[in-house]
Amino acid sequence: MSGVHVTTTINGDAVEFVCNADEPLLDVLRNRLGMTGAKEGCGTGDCGACSVTINGRLVCSCLVLGAEIQGAKVGTIEGMAKGDKLHPLQQNFISHAALQCGICTPGFLIAAKALLDKNPDPSEEEIRFGLAGNLCRCTGYDKIVRAVQATAKEMRGA
Amino acid sequence: MRYEAPETLKSAVTMLAKEKGLAFVLAGGTDLLVKMKGGFLEPDLVVDIKRIKGVFDITKSATGFKIGAAVPGVALGEHAALVKAWPGIVEGANLIGSKQVQGRCTMVGNLCNGSPAADGVPALIAANAKVVISGPKGKRTIPVEQVPVSPGRISLKKGEIIEAILLPKRPANSSDAYLRFIPRTEMDIAVVSAAVNLTLDGKGTIKDARVVLGAVAPTIIVVPAAAKALIGSKLDAAALAKLAAACSAACKPIDDKRGTIEFRTKVAGVLARRAAEIAYKRAGGK
Amino acid sequence: MPLDTNFTNQKFKQVGTRPLRPDGVDKVTGRAKYGADYNAPGQLIALVLRSPHAHARIKKIDTSKAEKLAGVKAIITSADLPDLTAGDRGMRDMLENCMARKKVLYDGHAVAAVAAIDQTTARKALKLIQVDYEILPHVTDLDEALKPSAPVIHNDIFTEGVEPKPTKPSNNNKRASFGHGDIEQGFKDADVIVEHTYKTEQTHQGYIEPHACVANVSPDGQGELWVCTQGHFVYRNQCAALLGMDISKLRVTASEIGGGFGGKTHIWTEPLALALSRKANRPVKLTMSREEVFRCSGPTSSTSIDMKIGAKRDGTITAAHGVLRYHGGAFPATWAEFGAMTAFACYDLKNVKSESIEVIVNRPKTAAYRAPSAPMAAFAVESAIDELAKKIGMDAVELRIRNAAKQGTKSSYGPVYGPIGIGATLEAAKNHAHMKAPLGKNQGRGMACGFWFNFGGQTCCDINVTPDGTVTVAVGTIDVGGSRASIGLMAAEELGLPYENVRVVIADTSSLGHNDMTDGSRGTFSTGLATIAAARNCIKVLCARAAKMWDIPEDAVVWEDGHAKPAGTNAGNFPPLSIKEIAAAAGNTGGPIAGHNELVADGAGVSFATHICDIEVDPETGRSTVKRYTVIQDAGKAIHPSYVEGQYQGGAAQGIGWALNEEYIYGKDGRLQNAGFLDYRIPVCSDLPFIDTMILEIPNPNHPYGVRGVGETSIVPPLAAVANAMSNAVGIRMTHIPMSPPRVLKAISARKH
After folding, report:
1. Which helix H or strand E contains C189, and what residues bound it?
2. Residues of C (34-63) whose Cβ lies below 8 Å from A
3. CA distance to C477, C529, C540, per residue, from C254 (Å)
4. Does C480 contact chain A (CB < 8 Å)?
5. Phi and psi dihedrals of B74, rounded to 5?
6. Candidate from B34, B43, B48 with C-beta closest to A44
7. Please, are residues C48 and C292 in contact by the beta-carbon 8 Å criterion?
8. What angle do helix axes C374-392 and C335-342 make, rounded to 10 degrees?
9. Contact call for C646 and A97, based on CB within 8 A
């Protein structure tokens, strides 16, 4: 199988790779680029653990081919903190105990950031539906929703 | 497998037509990649159409709307004029999958997946929407309901691509609505669904109606008897009851992991009634 | 209720506060390494070939074509895993479950495994392996499996616990009975009797992280295994035994774990990865797909339970009798026994009998799922008690309070209770604002109680004081939901150090003694005990070193607020020595300073909870929405209250999913039809309300801080609480879980006609 050569931007960095034509972006990130922050919970778009953004749109990286991101701008969990400064969502997830096992956390953070970018003052219902594509089996979502509410409030105040 | 991302519709059609093995169009990929992951499909060629000019466009003209083949669900919801004119179509498309899936999934893909449970399709059929198809023999335009043939199968011929969906111009006092039943609040495939498109006269009497049901037969079905039950009424209780009965009578569902025959038959009527009430209100009915 | 023992007067400086978890930053930045996040240089990718049949004899496996495929480095079948189990039935079943031997016993049962240079090659190789099956009749329903006409899955299973021992094999591997008193007399004394059969469908733990491991075995017999597990020591012991390795030569490192809930207490693919690595002499990575997780890891049992309870008009329960049938999947198990033991544990009963019947079916080998077997038993008991209350015309909470177990009660499963919290949780429920809140149209409220034993078990801990006076704590129970924070708090509390100066790590199996699994809600309890003991041992050493520095007797030194101090004015007049000062001098006072502890943690302290649920039902579609949910549970002592609340909320959410929508659906062909998150419907964020929690603290006398396990009890009441709410909302007793919309609508329709 001849590979597809892809030039792209991930978290602001120029990245180049060769992947199989049928290889999902998730596999490219994890296995070729060593970016294992996006997780494979299902591989079929049902759990959201592999969430990333492509050109600002929230997507499941398991449902995108690596070959498709030629020339695109990809955002992953590895690019969320700026230097040693955590994003307020990251900080609030820790301080609100919004994670237990943590496997879903990167996906939730990416999805929550996409939500707040679009809607800085979401209602509880908007948060819940905005995060409905991300499965968490540990928390019952309670502390996740509260962490997002706290972040929204904090970021509006800032 | 080979991956191609042509920049013109013509070259995409040529690639698909020439391919001897299994070839698929890739726009959002939210069905295709799932099938590939599960090993149900092993394509020899995937043609990504997202680099073709115009596929992300939603254009409004005197004759209605034209929606490009790669427009993701989320972009439909962001288009204020489209939402105003066809709220039922947009709410159907926006029910496909999660927010993540919305960033990718397209109405054309939803249609070409050929599922009787497709959320994006019933309201299109209720709207009398059409698709523009490009193929080796040129372009043709057919009604949306002529695309699906049976579960997982569509009427497109080798080398053909749906390039856009056409929505007719909205008459005055008209609107639509789509409802589906799922056990959870999100992330499920429709167990039953109903789309209703209504046009009222100036006094609130329904003068035109189209009622469509999903997931109750091998394909999405139009229910003329249900439309007939509504036309001439002001959506009174009797008309609603007749509508529900006509819908239940039109169901030929199956028992499967998502629902039973009994359940689908009953709930089809309930959803059609509720969708009609929403559409009626949106159309300006009291 | 004896709420106020001497434990409650303990003054803690750090225990009970809510510091940030030490692994937080790694987990919010994507840096934490889970099972599939590790790669070994030169690793191969392994895939498993699985049976499409529910029950079949393997006539022949031909791997020759696959072996010839370029890039394939090793293929194994059961022939590569000789039976070394020497008559140990449990180990043999484990081996056979990992890889089918003569027969496949369920859809998804492994028959061969391949290691190749990449995923694509491994996938191709699987297709080239030819297996000839002789398809056998199968049975996936547990009630069907007990019928005389059912195909017998194992011809060497003769029901245990029946006298005389049966001469014919069957799908019932064991019967047992618990209880006391005379139930026949008890039912005669009853004014009102409720009797029903309840059913629950099979569910899965639904952890988001699929099983994953990287195995690396050398020709010299040494090996390493990186794996997501709830118990790396147990995985080590079992894998070594099945593969004929010395236990000491297999070093297992536990990855971060992406959820387990009991599902990662069993080995499945790990021995296969090790065997492939041994054969290929290369590292092998093996990750299950989501479909494999559902089809062939270890879901919980489906059940069918006959329940009969009688009471006097005044609400006194006079007799209770349950017959509980649970399946263990395709292998013998004792899950029904757990159900029978827990069923009536909340109540003080004069006459009680609970009988268990273990069933074998053509489904995957069931594993533990959070308080395994208790939720289904509680569903039957708590439903029947609600109905009893209705028949008598008594409030459901009052009836429970009247019959609640208390200190001194002889439990239905044998032991006599010490101080327990069932009564306190019921009183709290009775007085909770939730109980008094008005209900809307089509809404119903239900409540239910639950019990779990909690486990202790083998545990150890090493505390090392580093040269700058900060401390490392090495433990052997993996951190599923924040236990590093609670262990750190306990070590800090004992040593008198700031929490930030304590780093807790999960040691690999070569760096610490054997530890049992993180299961049975034992992590914080057992490892907490070992940590406290290790810290106290460490303090002894610190005091001895201070004594040496001061040149006074060791027993003349005390430890207070993180400092060594002379015990009194007689001991000498020295300014306190900080741990930092003592650590700095360690090289001159006897070398590195450490504290160790190894123990069997006894007296885990049983745990009780009461839940309240409000539900709204759409009478036209049967669709339901949980509107409000409250968890009240006894924690003994909440070390880190945020993570205690998290356990309460998480268990409740899983229970709600189980009650409403989650179920394994098998076709007539014996194949699982919904092996994915699309159709195995766990609750999503928009399905649930906030879950209110109330932590009660009735100290466990067997723990220095009073800790009880908290992880599991929260999943016990929800099935019943939701069912009682649903039954009250629709006015029909719901007896089949999950109460999915088609089932609810059918019940509503049946009532109308």
Report:
1. helix C183-189
2. 34, 36-37, 39
3. 10, 22, 31
4. yes
5. -60, -35
6. B34
7. yes
8. 40
9. yes
Q: Which of A135, B191, B241 is nearest to C623 (CA)?
A: B191
Contact assignment for A101 to C210 by CB distance below 8 Å: no
Residue carrying the six token digits 């992947």? A19
Minimum Cα–Cα distance from B261: chain C residue: C742
Of C738, C671, C684, C655, the C-alpha closest to C291 is C671
Question: Which of C123, C673, C684 is facing B257, going by the closest CB pair?
Answer: C673
pLDDT in tens, C532-549: 999 999 999 999 999 999
Residues 76-105 of A with CB under 8 A from B: none
Whether C749 and chain B come into contact, CB under 8 Å, resolves to: yes
Q: In angstroms, rounded to a whole number, what is the distance separating the alpha carbons of residues C120 and C56?
A: 28
Query: What are the structure tokens assigned to C471, written together?
Result: 């401390």
Query: In this structure, what DSSP letter does residue A31 have?
Result: I
C514 burial level (CB within 10 Å; 0-12, 13-18, 19+): middle
Nearest CA of chain A to the CA of C39: how many Å?
9
Pairwise CA distance, residues C174 & C356, whole Å: 8
Pair B49, B16: CB distance under 8 Å: no
* DSSP letter (8 states) at residue C35: G
Instruction: Note whether C254 and C228 are within 8 A (CB).
Output: yes
Q: Provide the sign of the torsion angle of the four alpha carbons C619, C620, C625, C628, taken in this order.
A: negative
Q: What is the pLDDT at residue C2?
A: 37
For the stretch C545-587, pLDDT in tens is 999 999 999 999 999 999 999 998 888 889 999 999 999 999 9
Which regions of C407-491 does DSSP assign to beta strands (E)? 443-452, 457-465, 471-475
CA distances from C584 to C71, C524, C542, C579, C587 (A): 56, 31, 12, 8, 7
Q: In the numeric block, which tokens belong to residue C636?
A: 């003994």
Pairing state of beta strands C736-737 and C192-200? parallel
Residue B87: asked if its preceding bond is cis (omega within 30°), the reply is no
Is the Cβ pair B37, A43 closer than 8 Å?
Answer: yes
Take residue C559 and report the two structure tokens written for it.
């430890």
CA angle C521, C527, C530 (to 5 degrees): 145
Residue with tokens 């179920």, as numbered in its chain: C663
Chains touching chain B through at least 3 C-beta pairs below 8 angstroms are A, C
Is residue C7 predicted with pLDDT exceeding 60? no
Q: Which chain B residue shows the shortest CA-CA distance from C665?
A: B257
> Which among B163, B150, B94, B154 has a CA at the least distance from the CA of B123?
B94
Residue C472 tokens read as 């490392």
pLDDT by residue, tens only, chain B of 286 residues: 999 999 999 999 999 999 999 999 999 999 999 999 999 999 999 999 999 999 999 999 999 999 999 999 999 999 999 999 999 999 999 999 999 999 999 999 999 999 999 999 999 999 999 999 999 999 999 999 999 999 999 999 999 999 999 999 999 999 999 999 999 999 999 999 999 999 999 999 999 999 999 999 999 999 999 999 999 999 999 999 999 999 999 999 999 999 999 999 999 999 999 999 999 999 999 8
Q: Which residue's structure tokens are 């939803």?
A: B110
Q: Which chains have 3 or more CB–CB distances shorter than 8 Å to chain C? A: A, B
Are residues B34 and A133, on separate chains, in Cβ contact within 8 Å?
no
Interface with C, mutate which of A36, A50, A101, A128 (most C CBs under 10 A): A101
Residue C742 Cα, gap to closest chain B Cα (Å):
6
- Pairwise CB contact (< 8 Å): C742 & B181: no
Residue B143: asked if its preceding bond is cis (omega within 30°), the reply is no
**3-state SS record for C557-611:** EEEECCEEEECCHHHCCCCCEEHHHHHHCHHHHCCCEEEEEEEEECCCCCEEEEE
Identify the band that residue C474 occupies on the pLDDT scale cut at 50, 70 and 90. very high
For residue C139, the SS3 value is: coil
Report the complex ipTM.
Answer: 0.98
Q: Which residues of C touch B277 (CB under 8 A)?
A: none
